[in-house]
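DNA alkylation repair protein: C-alpha cells wanted.
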Amino acid sequence: MTYKEIIQALADMGSEQTKSTYIRHGAKEPLFGVKIGDMKKLVKHVKKDQALALQLYESGNYDAMYLAGLSVNPKTITKEQLQHWVAGANWHAPAEYTVARVAAESPYARELAVAWIDSPEELVAVSGWSTYANYVSIAPDEALDMEEVRSYLIRVRDTIHSERNWVRYVMNTFVISVGAYVKALTEEAKAVAEAVGKVHVDVGNTACKVPLATEYIAKIEAMDRVGNKKKTCIC
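Answer:
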C-alpha cells in the first residue's frame, strides 16, 4: 500500500467518538480517531516498507504516528531518527508509548533514555523515563547497569512529587517496571514505592488513574511473575 492509501485507510477506520476520546486525553489535531485494534490490521502492509513507516510519523497525524511505531523496525532505526521522533511527540501518548517503545528496542535504548531523562522539555523527559521502564522489561538482567537502575530508583524516591505532571506518571511506571522485571531490585523498588505512596497526576477530563506502585508490584508477586521478561514492548 502507498502512503496515500494508508492515510485513506486510517481515515476510513476513524470515528468521531474515538477521536473525541483521544482529544480528551490530550491528543492534538490532526487525527482520525482510530482504535488500536483496527489500526493493527495495517501493520503488515507498512512493515514491508520502512521508509513508509518513517513517512507516516512525519505526517504529524496521531493515528499515522502510532501506526509508524507499531511498524518500524527498531533494530534499524537510527539514533538521529529517534531524536527526530522525540522532538515531534506533541503530547504525552506518543512520547510515552510510540517513541519510548521503539527506542527501548533499538540499539540506543539506554543511551537515549539517560539523555532524555535529564531534558528540560517535559515530553522528552517522559520519553526518557518510559524508554528506561520499557528497556528493563525486555533486556536480560546481565545487560542492565544495576547501579544505574538503583540510582534512578533513588531519584524517583527523592524527586517524584516535585517533578512535572506527566514525568511523575512515568517515574511511577519506572518503579513498577523495575519491581516487576528486575528480580534483584524488586525489594528496593518496593521500598521506593512505599516511600513514594500515591502519585498525583492531572489526567484531565478522563477516567485514567495513576496505579499505586506498591499494589501493582504485589500483584505481580502474587502471580509469581517477578523477573519474567517480555519478548517485546511494542504494542
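The CA atoms of residues 31 and 200 lie 28 Å apart. The two ends are 21 Å apart (CA to CA).

Cheers.
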